[in-house]
Amino acid sequence: MGFSHDTLCSHTVKSADLIIICANLGSVERIFRNLKGTISGETIITDIGSVKAKVQKLAMDILDFPTNYIPCHPIAGSEKSGLGQVQSNLFNGKKMIMITGNSCVQKCSVVKNLFSKLGMEIVNMNYVYELGSHN
C-alpha cells in the first residue's frame, strides 16, 4: 500500500515492517520528519535514490532509530520519465548497491531478499567507501 509523503498516515506506517522511500531528494527530510515518533524500532527504512551521504546524515539527525535506515541505490531505469515509460521488469537483471554497516545483518537481509525477488543482483558497498563516491 503506498502513500505520498503529503498524505502519510501515522496509523498505516506505525505497523510497517519495511518502508521504501521513492521520492526526490528534496522530499526526504520532510518524509523523515513525518516518520519521526511514528514508526517502531523494528521498522526498516530504505530508499532508491542515488544520493546517499546527505540522506544518511538526515537519517542520523532526524529518525528515532537511524540505524534502521539501509541506504540502497538501484542501477536501473533510463533517461526517459513519465507514466508512458513504466517498465514492469525495471529491476530484473540489474544491480542494487546496498550501503552496509556493522549493525545491519538482519535488517540488510530483509532488504536484500526483497530486491533479489525483483531479480536484482545485490552489491554491498561499505559506507566509508561510499562517502567519497557519489554524494
Describe this structure in words.
This protein is α/β, with parallel strands linked by helices. It has a single domain (9-131), classed as Rossmann fold, CATH 3.40.50.720. The protein has five helices and six strands. The protein has helices spanning 10-13, 25-35, 53-62, 105-117, 127-131; strands at residues 18-21, 44-47, 69-70, 72-75, 95-100, 121-126. Helix 2 (25-35) packs parallel to helix 3 (53-62).
Short key terms for the protein model shown above:
single chain, 135 residues, Rossmann fold, three-stranded parallel beta sheet, disordered C terminus
Output the radius of gyration. Answer: 15 Å
Unreliable segments of 5+ consecutive residues: 128-135
Give me the CATH superfamily. NAD(P)-binding Rossmann-like Domain
Strand content: 15-25%
N→C terminal distance: 30 Å
Largest sheet: 3 strands, parallel
Report the CATH architecture: 3-Layer(aba) Sandwich
Q: Indicate the mean pLDDT.
A: 83
Q: Order of helices and strands, N to C? A: HEHEHEEEHEH
SSE class: alpha/beta
**Strands of the largest sheet, in order across it?**
1-2-3
What would the CATH topology be? Rossmann fold
Name of the level-1 CATH class: Alpha Beta
The percentage helix is 25-40%
E-strand count: 6
**Bulk shape:** globular
Count of domain modules: 1
Number of helices: 5
